[in-house]
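testing teh design pipeline on a random one, pls ignore if ur not involved
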C-alpha cells in the first residue's frame, strides 16, 4: 500500500508520542503530534490526516468527546489508545465511531500493523461527508447544505432537533447509538432532562419519513441499547 500518508498522534505523554512517531516514520508515514485536545482539533484542520491515533485521557477534553466532534464532519479513521481495559469502555469507544482500540501497554509494531490494516479498509474514509445523503435509491434524500429532507421528492417538515437527530444517525448508517449519545449530539452535554425525550423525537421522525411507522425501515430500534439508521 502507499505509505505517503499523514498520521496524527494525540497523547499527553511525550515519550509515548515519540515512540509511536519513530516506528511510524520507519514504516514510511509522516507523523504529526498533538498533546492536548485543542492541538488535536487544530492539527486535524491543518494537515487533514489519513488516520488519527487518539489517547482517551487528555488533560483538556476526553478522547471520546474529540471523537464525537470529528465524526460530525469526517470519516477519518480513528484508533483509540488508552489504559482503560473495561469492555464497556471499549464498546463505548467503538460505538461513537472509533475504528479500532489499543490498550496500554502496547507493542508499537502491533500498532503500526493495525494502522496498516485500518487504512487498507478505509482508503477513502478521510474525505469530508457529502452534502447529499441519499438512501434506498433516492427514497430519502438529505441535503445537509440546505437543511432539507425529501421523501420520494417531497419535502419533509422536521423540527430542528428532529433534523439534527436524523442527520446524526444518517451520517453513520448501521452504527448503533445509545440514547445518551443522541442526547449529547442533539440536545447538548448540559441537558439534564429525561432521556426518553429521544424516544419522542424518534416517534415523530418515523411518522414523517417512514412508509409504515409501525414497521420502520430507516430509524431502527436496537433493544436494550438505542437506535440505528437502516437506510442503504
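output:
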Amino acid at each position: 500500500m502507499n505509505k505517503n500518508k499523514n498520521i496524527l498522534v494525540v497523547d499527553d505523554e511525550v515519550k509515548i508520542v515519540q515512540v509511536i512517531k519513530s516506528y511510524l516514520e520507519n514504516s514510511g508515514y509522516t507523523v504529526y503530534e498533538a498533546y492536548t485536545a485543542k492541538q488535536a482539533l487544530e492539527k486535524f484542520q491543518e494537515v487533514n490526516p489519513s488516520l488519527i491515533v487518539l489517547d482517551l485521557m487528555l488533560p483538556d477534553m476526553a478522547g471520546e468527546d474529540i471523537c464525537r466532534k470529528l465524526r460530525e464532519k469526517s470519516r477519518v479513521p480513528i484508533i483509540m489508545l488508552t489504559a482503560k481495559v473495561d469492555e464497556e469502555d471499549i464498546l463505548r469507544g467503538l460505538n461513537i465511531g472509533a475504528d479500532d482500540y489499543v490498550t496500554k501497554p502496547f507493542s508499537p509494531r502491533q500498532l503500526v500493523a493495525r494502522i496498516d490494516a485500518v487504512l487498507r479498509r478505509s482508503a477513502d474514509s478521510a474525505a469530508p461527508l457529502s452534502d447529499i445523503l441519499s438512501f434506498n435509491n433516492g427514497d430519502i434524500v438529505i441535503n445537509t447544505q440546505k437543511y432539507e429532507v425529501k421523501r420520494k421528492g417531497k419535502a419533509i417538515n422536521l423540527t430542528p432537533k428532529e433534523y439534527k437527530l436524523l442527520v446524526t444517525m444518517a451520517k453513520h448508517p448501521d452504527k448503533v447509538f445509545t440514547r445518551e449519545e443522541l442526547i449529547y449530539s442533539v440536545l447538548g452535554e448540559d441537558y439534564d432532562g429525561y432521556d426518553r425525550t429521544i424516544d419522542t423525537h424518534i416517534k415523530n421522525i418515523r411518522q414523517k419519513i417512514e412508509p409504515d411507522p409501525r414497521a420502520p425501515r430507516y430509524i431502527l430500534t436496537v433493544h436494550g441499547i438505542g437506535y440505528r439508521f437502516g437506510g442503504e
